[in-house]
Amino acid sequence: MTPIIFLTFANDPDAHLDLLKEESRRLYGALEELDRKEYLKLLREESAQVKDIFASFTKNKDRIAIFHYAGHAAGTQLNLEGGSGDAEGLAQLLGQQEGLQLVFLNGCSTKGQVQTLLAAGVPAVIATAVPIEDRKAMEFSQQFYEALANRRTIEQAFKMAQAYLETKFSKSVEVVMRDASWVGAAEQENSMDMPWGLYVQEARKTEILSWKLPFFRPVGLPQDMIQYIGSSFTANRYIVLVLDEMCKYNPDIYDQMVEKRGEEVIKKDSKHFPWLVIENFPWPIGSQIRLLRFYDKPNVERLEHLVSTYLITSQMLYYILVSDLWEQSRRTIHEAKWPQLEQQKSAFANFDFLGQIPALYDKIVGIGMPFIGELEMLATDLENAESPLAKAHSFLEKLRRELQTSPPTADLDKLCVKTEQATSIVLRAAAFLARYRLLTVRNVSINRPRFEPLAYELDMGPLNATQGTGLNLYQDQEYRRKENYSDSSSVILVSNEKHLDKSLNLSPFLIDKNTFVKVKKSETTEQDRLAHIFLMGWEADNQLTYLAVDHSFFHALNNEDDQIHTNMTQEDFTEGRNLKDDDFGDDFGLDFGLDADTGSDDSPKVFQILYDQYLLCKNDLA
Fold first, then answer.
1. Phi, psi of 273, deg, nearest 5
2. What is the arithmetic mean of pLDDT over 12-18?
3. 539 or 581: whose pLDDT is higher?
4. CA-CA distance, 427 to 581, in Å (whole number)?
5. 334 vs 286, residue with greater confidence
6. Gap between the Cα atoms of 290 and 272, Å rounded
7. Which DSSP helix (H) or strand (E) runs through 418?
8. CB 483 within 8 A of CB 527
């Protein structure tokens, strides 16, 4: 059953709260995406009266998970519009709601109501001990709900809101936890140092503090759509069926699979469905799935590309977690070690990326809060040897080794089907990536017209492997202007493009090559405007080698035309000196000079910043 968040606000014409409307707008903005995707239902009452609150609870029996009030309040009442609401009566109402997880009273001095609410059966209450400044109240609640919307638990969201206020206002907002037997603590404590408190029923403490909003819908595709896909494809049938899981995280995908004609819903031509899988995964994964459309015969080449899809997906997930671990290690005093970052080519070629995820995820949880909470499910499944994901992982790693030593030749039809099934299981486990956006950021400009707020203008565009390879940078100047910036010359992962301050920088692990290769605008070619995506490979001779995702993992591993390295200079690209003769000239008695000169030692290295970042990361995690 879809949970409901009920946001209520009440102002007073005689003691007007200027920022109450702004708080309503911000909280709605933090949660509206989850409401639109039907993960939750959002109710908002901006002029709340007693009758409105009771009517909403009656109409939505046991569905309201969080009740939020913002406005004037005191120890025994909420100052609702049209008259005050008595705390005793409200507590009786709220205590009867079986689905209720939290009551958030964001008004002045509401701590006096906590005992009544807990005694009535409310599991958890956030309340204030003292009068609260309007702006702090707004920003505290905004940070709390944004954290909840990004898959944080109640406890984590409360601590994140606390940390935000400590950082911005340089004053402690201590987390306080009490059980229902708490009495008179307001008089016993110097509560001026702890405006907000989180109070929890002791018997349900673990359950409530770990509660979080759902981040997917319980159902994906209708059964008739699954049957439609199954009858439309032979090769890649199981890959296309990954849409079932992707739609749980991004219901917009299903809307692209059907056409609505009045009350009737018509399925679109299934030939477009593979592109929905491709386009809604990040570019590295989508590019591999796109290749599968051209290798649809049951042979060794198809096996190689299926395994390559598994490897690139695993590598993408692995680098997301390594990036997150590095971010967390920089924000905490706790040490985070990950010496596996440094690898030679031979070790990289056989590295089990997916197998590292449980340990990596545990390390992040040990020092902070993961950027992608959905990875918890993937890590848990990998640790369960009987889960489909663990079995698929074991099978694909075994086949990977065989392809590099003695490729199979018998029963290729059955082996290709089994491999496709195993690869689709891995893609299903990574389907949550369909709710994130991969963006390339090529430049950040600071813009502040006179008397207007500071803004950042970003040259940025989405990285999805569409039918072409062109990169469409956003042209809408208003959309490119952000209140908060993102890092330049990088690829970032975001759950909401409106909030780039809540992003994960994937540099130096995943890069858009053309971000770093500088050319004059007058010399810009169509090729320069494309995105050219590379994943980090191995380190040797004081340089990093990166592999393109345009072909299979195995092709990139063994072909220099799919590789770049951090010792390359600008001249290596503009004059073609990164190319090799490959003895072509010797065959015809002509030296083309491609190997003759690799540029001056004084020439700036295009990717030096990436190698510097890598060394810093390696040192931090060593």
1. -65, -40
2. 56
3. 539
4. 39
5. 286
6. 12
7. helix 412-429
8. no
CA 413: distance to chain centroid? Answer: 37
Residue-wise pLDDT tens digits, 285-307: 999 999 999 999 999 999 999 99
The better pLDDT of the pair 186, 152 is held by 152
Q: What Cα–Cα distance (Å) separates residue 220 from each residue in 265, 273, 494, 541, 573?
A: 16, 15, 23, 49, 46
pLDDT tens digits, residue range 473-532?
676 777 777 766 666 678 999 887 877 777 899 999 999 888 887 654 444 455 545 668
- Reported confidence tier of residue 259, pLDDT bands at 50, 70, 90: very high
Tell me which residue of 149, 137, 139 sits closest to 105, measured CA to CA: 137
What is the chain's Cα-based Rg? 28
Enumerate helices (H) and strands (E) in the chain, giving the number of each. Answer: 26, 19
Residue found under tokens 């992003």? 503
Task: Report whether the peptide linkage leading into residue 453 is cis, meaning its omega lies within 30 degrees of zero.
Answer: no
Which pLDDT value is given to residue 29?
87
Local structure of 399: helix, strand or coil: helix
In this prediction, residue 34 has a pLDDT band, given cuts at 50, 70 and 90, of: confident
CA separation for the pair 214, 2 (Å, rounded)? 8
Please tell me the distance from the alpha carbon of residue 368 to that of residue 332, in angstroms, as a whole number.
Answer: 8
Phi/psi at 447 (5° precision): -135, 125
Residue 581 scores a pLDDT above 60: no
- The packing angle between helices 283-292 and 273-280, to 10°, is 150
SS (H, E, C) 427-494: HHHCHHHHHCEEEEEEEEEEECCCCCCCEEEEEEEECECCCCCECCCCCCHHHHEECCCCCCCEEEEE
CB atoms within 10 A of CB 553: 23
Residue 85's contacts (CB-CB under 8 Å, 6 or more residues apart) are: 50, 53, 77, 78, 79
Residues 6 or more apart whose Cβ sits within 8 Å of residue 234? 296
Instruction: Map residue 372 onto helix, strand or coil.
Output: coil
In the block, which residue shows the tokens 């070790």?
347
In the three-class reduction of DSSP (H, G, I as helix; E, B as strand; rest coil), residue 323 is classed as helix
What are the residues whose beta carbons fall under 8 Å from the beta carbon of 238, sequence distance 6 or more?
420, 421, 423, 424
User: Is the pLDDT confidence value at 22 over 90?
Assistant: no
CA angle (550, 287, 567) in 5-degree steps? 40
The lowest-confidence range among 75-89, 138-152, 170-184, 510-524 is 170-184
CB-based contact 298:345 (threshold 8 Å): no
pLDDT at 18: 66
